[in-house]
Every structure is written in structure tokens, then in C-alpha cells.
Design brief:
9 strands, elongated, alpha/beta, two-stranded antiparallel ribbon, seven-stranded parallel sheet, 249 residues
Amino acid sequence: MGVPEGAWKPEEQRLGPVLRRRDQVQPGTTDQRLLDTEGDSEWVHTDPWRVMRIQSEFVEGFGALAELPSAISVFGSARTRPGTPEYEAGVRLGRALVEAGFAVITGGGPGAMEAANKGAREAKGVSVGLGIELPFEQGLNPHVDIGVNFRYFFVRKTMFVKYAQGFVVLPGGLGTLDELFEALTLVQTRKVTRFPIVLFGTEYWKGLVDWLRDSVVAGGKASERDLLLFHVTDDVNEAVALVSKETGR
């Protein structure tokens, strides 16, 4: 027969991997707290619960993308308008990557991302969109065949790198720059290997490249060889050839 509740308090308590002693002993059991329907819902906003959500996002992403063929992640501005030269270049790029045997991964949004997904879809390739929860939610563009939406940027970034063999970066804003420098840092620090990075649009990227050379490298903040971590081109075929060569295709 059990001891009446409150009649005895143990000096030591084991809750899974956690050991509690003396004043840190908690009343009840883990199962009891799990099955108790009383109390507020603040626990869903605690860090331990966030860890579970983060874990679930990794599991869902890995599960959805594990069987992708060789892929290239294409980045670019969500503000690129349909019908513009930049948009049409994105369509041609998506199409050419599929014709070279790659799947195409984008952020799944409008603009340059939509253009690359559209080209991949038109070429009957695998068109992937990795969306992100934002205050100004845009949703996945209609040319995405496999779509995964994420809450956390860092989980999404992992998917971009893990399931791609290289990046092609179209003209874009802060989000595009974030992905670009993430990739450059991973290659520079050898966290990834054989990972080509192509900047598409010489006029657009010229100022950034000049700054890297004349300020960052010249100031001793990076080495001259770091400028070899990426290529710059205006030609879709050259961009595809560069990622194909460096990935050994």
C-alpha cells in the first residue's frame, strides 16, 4: 500500500537523467505531471519545449530532403519582378541546372527564388522550396514541388547547405547576403568541402568584390586566397559549368 501524499519526502529524487536532492526534490512524478491537465500553458514557450520544436524541424527537413538528387541552392531577392532581365536569368538558370542533372533548391518565395523554381519545373526537374516563418508571410511560390516551412533560420540554413552541392547567388538583399557569407565562412573554415559559390551578375556584385579586395583583404582581415572561394559571371552556362566542374559532374 502506498505512502499517503505529503507524508514523506525523499532526500534524493531521480527524474530521468536528472538528479535532485534535499530542497530541490520536486513533488509528484514525471508521469503525474505529464497526465495532469491542470495548470497554465506557459510551458509551451519555455526553452526545453523550443528544443523539441527545433529537433522536430530538423527531423522533418532531413526526412523530406534525404532522397534528393544532387542539388544546387539558388539565392536571390524576393523583390525581383517577373519579366525583368534578372527574373528571366533566374528562370534560365533553374532550367539549365536541371538539364545538367541537378535539383534546384530555393527559399521558396517570390522574385528570384520563384524564377529559379519556375525554370526547374519547366525543365521537369525537382523544384524545392525551403520557406521561413516571417511577419510578412509570403508563402511558397506555385513552382515548388517539395516544400518545407521552417520557424528557425538556422535550421533552414542547415538544409540549404546539407542538401546542396553548391550555391548560385543572384542579386539580392540582406537575406541573400546572409546566405552568401554563411557559405563563404563554411568553405573558408573547411566545414564543407568542394562547395562552389557563384555570384551571378558582375555589375551588381562588383562593389562587394571590390570592397572585399580593397578593404577586407588589404586591411589584413582576410587573405588573398579567400577571393578564390567564389566566382563571378553573367553567363548562365558558365555558372552551371562552374558548379558542375567543382562538384565533379
